[in-house]
Amino acid sequence: MRSEPIRVVLAEDGVLLREGLAGLLDRFGFEVVAAVGDAAGLVWAATEHAPDLVVTDIRMPPDYTDEGLRVALELRRARPELAVVVLSQYVQHSYATELLDSGDGMRVGYLLKDRVVDVTEFVAALRKVVDGGTVVDPQVVRQLLNRHRNPLSTLSTREREVLALMAEGHSNSAIARKLVISEAAVGKHVGNILAKLNLPPTEETNRRVLAVLTYLRSENTL
User: Fold this and answer.
1) With helix as H, strand as E and coil as C, how does the chain read?
2) What is the average per-residue pLDDT within 105-114?
3) Any idea which fold 151-221 has?
4) Taking the complete model, does pTM exceed 0.70, yes or no?
């Protein structure tokens, strides 16, 4: 049985929730070695303190999109044995499945803030993850399963926006103007879209057209 306290890095941009969680974990015998409010702070704290457990939100500065989830995945790639629990208000489909698959699916959790109704059960879930288990809210499982029936499920929100504009016939430069981003960024998004849709370069087919056809088929089935 573990004798020393579980060392935790906590990442949450809301100061009241962050301090509340830190106090809660301390009360149950965890050692919060760092409590940070953004993705850069999470990277630094996890590197500096080498914790047993990272508890992170998804949306954090600077962009409030999926920074926390992406950092969690990077940390797991560097340290597959690191326990990670995502604690969020919603299900972020991009990267979520990849995170849950990382480290052979061990020492990982995905919980929804609004569905945590019992503090003791929450703490038990954290300990279970540290001990090698997996804890995923049933609502997360349902949404991921439903999403994965759609071939566009792996695309980020921005990539879906780019693909929708591609389907409308816009060039990369026109898409860049509409989304107020650089043309280079659009090109990168297009490359990611083609890769995620498993459309490798060939001489016989136009991948951009195939991507648009995939988008149109998927939208018509929603």
Assistant:
1) CCCCCCEEEEECCCHHHHHHHHHHHHHCCCEEEEEECCHHHHHHHHHHHCCCEEEECCCCCCCCCCHHHHHHHHHHHHCCCCEEEEEECCCCCCCHHHHHHHHHHCCEEEEEHHHCCCHHHHHHHHHHHHCCCEEECHHHHHHHHHHCCCHHHHCCHHHHHHHHHHHCCCCHHHHHHHHCCCHHHHHHHHHHHHHHCCCCCCCCCCHHHHHHHHHHHHHHHC
2) 90
3) Arc Repressor Mutant, subunit A (1.10.10)
4) no
